[in-house]
Amino acid sequence: MAQLHLKNIKKQYDSSGPVVVKDFNLDIEEGEFIVFVGPSGCGKSTTLRMMAGLEEITDGEFYINDKKMNGIAPKNRDIAMVFQNYALYPHMTVYDNIAFGLKIKKRPKQEIKQKVEEAADILGLTEYLHRKPKALSGGQRQRVALGRAIVREADVFLMDEPLSNLDAKLRVQMRAEIMKLHQRLKTTTVYVTHDQTEALTMATRIVILNNGEIMQVGAPQEVYNTPNNLFVAQFIGSPSMNIFDGIFDGERLKIGNTNIKVAEADKHILKEHGYTDKKIKFGIRPENVQEYQQLSKPEEASLFDIKVRVNELLGSEFMIYSELEGEEIVARVDARNQNKPGDTMTFAFDMDKGHFFDFDTGERITDN
Amino acid sequence: MKTIYLFWIIGFLGLILGPMLFSLYGSFTNYNVTSTMDFVSFQNYEEMFLHDSLFWTSLYNTLYFVIFSVPLTTIAAIFISVLVNQNLPGMKFFRTVFYLPAILSGVGVYLLWMQLLDPSTGLINSFLSLFGISGPNWLFDAGWAKPSLILMKLWSAGGAMLLYLSAMQGISKTLYEAAVMEGASRVQMFFKVTLPMISPIIFFDVITSTIGSFQIFQEAYIMSSDSAGSPENSLLFFNLHMWIKAFNVFDMGYAMAMSWILFIIVLILTLINFRFAKYWVHYEDD
Q: Where would you find the membrane-spanning parts of this chain (chain B) (predicted)?
């Protein structure tokens, strides 16, 4: 197990080119499962590859257990890596693939055999040890790649979108297996994904990246409930948070012609920060857009009507897609809902769960 | 659609199967262009194996050439492709230079090499003399004539290099990255990743160049001073001997029999190659 320390890490492929990772600072504790998440090109894989030693660090310092790793060869970093496309050797059996690193290190045969069999047992690969990768399913292949990491008994696991090549069902299954593995081995893990659901379900802490910069670091609940800025608010959560442009008049939030009462605590903070009569961005998650019938105190709520455009059944619930004052709104409602496209529904926002952001910077204003 | 089939059948029968069957039948006759084709049973084959010592010489020369030329050019082509697969400035220039010999046509190249290999005025011996080495007589020395041809073949390894280079560039970079993470050295990566990954191309190259090398003719015809395999029959390859039999002495029946023997040898070797392929050729998907 290891602590990792990334200090002012920067990556620029050529001196006149764009900076793909900007001033990246992060401390990772022993045994953590850190997930880097962000859209394509945000620098998450590049950062991971710099940690692995596959990419040079342009500027800044990277430490494993207080030992500086800049310029140290990948093999001397005691890191095992799992790749998106598995990186299995097609000409080797599952056994040889898992044993590859140990054979390279010229470990005794008996030790190799024992470790490979142990790993195969953990991953349920025992009966496939003599097969070639081409005779395995995607999930099994990724398990072989995990096996290769396990036998190394490395200090750190780096995983670069390991589940992206799998179908949806397998992805969920492998997600659970990787978490189980982490609970068992407790190896410090850095996991890269573009899938926010993976990030939310797996991470002890999530690092959200955009354009080479860290947008927020925090536990899954924390980044979901208190996003630091508009980017995090919209990136984390599916469907993403509803965002409206509005003006705070000291009492209410005006979204076009719809006036909505602001919660007392938020009112205070907005006034304190000088947002009265100023344009702001208001965000609310689909599950906090409540149907009139579900409200406990409908007389206190600011109600508004919308016309259902699309209703999407997700099994236990419906997603209602519509428009409020010209902006798209998504509401998550009970599956017993009988409304059809074209019907009018009455809603209210659960304003205790609302988020206010600065109109220009997109930074969070309240501290809900 | 039917017309296309008709053309194909005419082409296949007239240009492939017909001549093959004709030569098979001809190999059992005493056909000499002017005579009728009289059936002589296995007489040509008997003559070949029991009485024609030049047949054995030509077979020996050909096997010698195949045994040295095929592995050496294969190794050279792989070696060059590893070199030009590096991501260094000017690499395109070197790739072009190495590939150039492959697009130069036969006879011109042979004449060029005859000049290079000239014992007294050739560039190669002049170069060797700079180091105080007195070069051999190359094409005029029975011991050096075949190595000269093998040397010339090595020079054109760039053709196969192109195949290997494209195969190497098709190998997923993550395989190497995974190996780097596991601590593999460059040499280990070459033997454990690159070679197995390009093994289907090596297999293809070995098969085709073995067949090609058994058919060596032009080189010997042009470069042996009497066009008949001199010095001391050291360049009398199988096909040259067959050609001499067919078109110098017009013993067509005998030449046809020789061609069938060559066919059988190549067929057996190819089958052996295929038989052993499963031990060293790795296909990603099959």
A: 5-28, 63-84, 96-116, 152-171, 252-272
Do B160 and B209 form a contact (C-beta atoms < 8 A)?
A: yes
Coil/strand/helix, residue A327: strand
* Residue of B172, B182, B187, B282 to mutate, interface with A, max A Cβ within 10 Å: B182
Q: Which chain A residues in 270-309 lie under 8 Å from chain B, judged by CB atoms?
A: none
Q: What is the largest CA-CA distance in chain B?
A: 74
Q: Write the residue in B180, B188, B283 that is nearest to A74 by C-beta.
A: B180
The ipTM (two decimal places) reads: 0.87
> A89, B175: Cβ pair inside 8 Å?
yes
Is A79's Cβ below 8 Å from some Cβ in B?
yes
**In B, what residues contact A, Cβ < 8 A?**
172, 174-175, 177-184, 188, 192-193, 196-197, 199, 282-286
Which residues of chain A does B188 touch, with a Cβ-Cβ cutoff of 8 Å? 104
pLDDT at B104: 85
Angstrom distances, CA of residue A42 to CA of A10, A11, A306? 13, 12, 36
C-alpha–C-alpha distance, residues A67 and A56, integer Å: 17
Instruction: Please enumerate, as own/partner, the contacts of A176-179 that have beta carbons within 8 Å and a separation of 24 or more.
Output: A177/A123, A177/A143, A177/A146, A178/A146, A178/A202, A179/A33
Q: Are strands A317-324 and A67-68 parallel, antiparallel or unpaired?
A: unpaired
Average pLDDT over residues A218-240: 95
Mean pLDDT (chain A) is 93
Beta-sheet pairing, A213-218 with A205-210: antiparallel
Q: How far apart are CA A181 and CA A125, in angstroms?
A: 14
Reply yes or no on domain A242-358 having CATH 2.60.40.1840: no
Residue pair A213/A240 in contact (Cβ under 8 Å)? The answer is no
Q: Do B180 and A75 touch (CB under 8 A)?
A: yes
Q: What is the separation of C-alpha B266 from the centre of its chain, rounded to a whole number of angstroms?
A: 12
Q: Give CA–CA dist A194/A209, Å, rounded.
A: 10
Give the pLDDT confidence of A294-328 residue by residue, as tens digits: 887 777 788 999 999 999 998 889 999 999 999 99
Domain boundaries, chain A: 4-235, 242-358
Q: Please tell me the predicted confidence (pLDDT) of residue A367.
A: 59
Q: How many residues does chain A have?
A: 368
The superfamily in CATH containing domain A4-235 is P-loop containing nucleotide triphosphate hydrolases (3.40.50.300)
Which residues of chain B are modeled with pLDDT < 70? 1, 285-286
B286 contacts in chain A (CB < 8 Å): 134
The residues, ordered by sequence, that sit 6+ positions from B66 with a Cβ below 8 Å of its Cβ are B210, B213, B214
Measure Cα distances from B234 to A149, B64, B238 in Å: 59, 10, 11
Out of 1.10.3720.10, 3.40.50.2300, 3.40.980.10, 3.90.920.10, which CATH number does the structure's domain B45-280 have?
Answer: 1.10.3720.10
Q: What is the DSSP letter of B14?
A: I
Locus of tokens 């109109």: A359
At A157-181, the pLDDT tens digits run 999 999 998 898 889 999 999 999 9
Q: What chain B residue is nearest to A100 in terms of C-alpha separation?
A: B182
